[in-house]
Each structure stands twice: as structure tokens, then as C-alpha cells.
Sequence to fold (397 residues):
Amino acid sequence: MNRHTIIIHTLGTLLLLPLLAGQQEEAGKNRATDPPTAQQRPNDVDLGHGYVRRNGAIHFIGGGKTSTGADATRIDTPSQRVLKGFTDADLGPFKTCEGLDVASFEALSEEYARDNEHVYHKVISPGVFLVILLNDADPATFEVLARNLARDRNHVWVYDQIQPGADPANLELVDSGRVFKDQDSVHYQSEQITGADAASFRHLGSAYYADKNRAYWSYSPIHGADPATLEVLGDSFMAKDTSNVYRSGKLVPGLDVASVQLIVHDPIGHQILSDKNGIHLNTMTFPRSRPGKVEVIDNLTVKAGDLVLLVDTYYSLPVTVFKEDGKLMAETVVFDPTSREPLATMTAEVTAGGPKDIRTGPLPGEGKAPPVPDWQGKVFKRPDLVRRMIEAGKLIK
Fold:
């Protein structure tokens, strides 16, 4: 996996935290004297996409800095600290955009720009950016297709790299450019999907794809999935075919394919589902849950009959709140920290002073509960979760 593959699969940015720390330190030293650079000034010429022509130079004022002082946003004068940070992050070799032609400079997008002679790409890191030269790009035919996808008459470009094996003349976007294909190959960002059939390759939803032979999660084939019947549940991370249910392309055992339904998809990362056997959070089941009518309170809370089901945001655990003998109770799942395999249940009375009488029990159908690590016992003791349990209790008659 090359450095640009790593960039793409970690939020599309270089995470140069030491560089960011240095920039913040340097910014602190200059805060009293720095002019307000990250805004348009009266004499600026707006070039679009965050770029302006200012006093005979090009500045990017759409976010971040590349230097300090009056040149903090001037794209052709990066500071030595910024250059060192990007070099230390193994972005190289590269050439920056010193010597660009200010008069013919054109912003094609926030990421790509050109002048009469060259094409440029803006690389970002938290708080800083660097504009670099694309040596082999043809400015006359350069065309931006998606945020970090472009082509010219000779090449397809992903970020600042030529994509091997991609034909610019026959390029077709799939899934808004996150995936693209030509007559013979399919590419997921900078990864070519080995063996994919370009003619039949299609987007199903979320990060699920299929061709006539296989189904895929991003660029990885889903073992055993049926591409003809695979369907995505609500454009979430969940999908099913005639035999199985999948989460992020991985088999989720135990769910009933015929009755499974998506209740909540939180784009940050969890799903709540139901089937004939109960209600589930990702790959775990809410204790005591059963199929039936569900009311969605918010993305972290649903009401199912006389139960309120909470998503514990620290560990993505299913928490069931209920009343028993006049007491407010809560129950969750104890799990193996490596495999996240459910091991037991944990139950406690919920009071304003915190949980009491915490006890563990076996999973349904199991004979004995294993020992519970101390850290899992602390789940019920977090004040934020206790507050949510108490609020949930108000929804139960």
C-alpha cells in the first residue's frame, strides 16, 4: 500500500500531528503581529474555490496556513517548518509551486489549479497545506472529475499521483467519483480492484458494490455474498442477500435474513436493527428485546414496548432500561474485548446516586456466566450513562 493509499483510507489527509503542533507554537509567537490573512480583503481578486489574487501573488484563504505572517496563506512561499513536516511525513519527492504564473493562474477546484504551463495540487494536513507541482500533468487538457480525481489527455490523477492502468479517454465515474472505471478496469480511489468486471460493476449503496461475479465492500470482495441478490439496508453499513446479513462486508451470524429490518443508521458508526428474534446493535442484541413496534427517540435511543434501548457511545454497547418491581433497572452485554463476542449480561438497579446491586448472568440459553473484568463493571457507573438511564426511565409508564 503506497503513501497515497494510506492518505485516502485515513480520511483523505496527512495526519501530521507534530507538524500541526509546531505550526500552533509558531502561530502563537506571531499572533500579536499577524494580519488577518484568512479572509478576503477589499483589493483581492476572487478566483473561486478559496483562492484570491492579492498584491501580485496567489493566496489560499479557504482554510489553513502554509507559512507565517503576511505570507501565511501565500501558496508559493511555504515555510521551512511546513516543508519539513510534509517531507518527514514521506510526501515526496515533490516540487512546490514557486514561480507560478500569477496572471494565468486558474483555480479548478479547492484541490487542483493550473496556469499556462503547469498544474498544481493542494495537499492538506490539520491546520496547514502545501501546494505542489504535478510534473507530468497537461494544463491544456486537465479536467477535475471529483474532489481528488482528475484527468488530462494522458493520465488519470488521484490526488497528486498518476493512477496506473486507468484510461482517461474512457473513464466513467461510479459512486460520485469515489470509484471509477474504464473499459477494462475498476478503481476504488487509488486501489485497482483486482478481477472486477468493469462492464457489470455497479454501486449498490453505502460502500457496497457488485459485478456479475462478486460483491464488494469498498475494494474487498465479500466472501460468500451473492452479487445478484445483495441489497443495502437504508444505505447503511448493513446489507443482506438471500442467505446472510453483513456489516461493513463482514458476516453477521445469527440474524434472520427474511425478517431483518434497519431501524437506525448513525453515520458515525452504529446501526440498530430488528428481526424475528429481537432488536440488535451492530452485532450484539439488546437484552430482553423482542420483535414488535419500535419508536425512534433519537439516534441513540429507541423505545420498544415497555423497554427503552440505549446505545452506549463509549463501547457501542446495547443497554436496555426497564422497570421491575417498581425499580428502574438496566441491563447490558459483557463482551470479549478482542472479538467483541458477547459473553454474559450485566444488570443493575439505577438510582440517582448511581447503579446498585450490579450482578452478572448467563446469556440466554447459556448455563453459566464467565468472570467479568472490572473495567466492564464500570460501564454502569459512568455519570453520563446513568443520567441517560434515568431519562430513559421517564419514557416507561
Observations:
- The helical segments are 3-8, 17-30, 80-88, 374-377, 383-393.
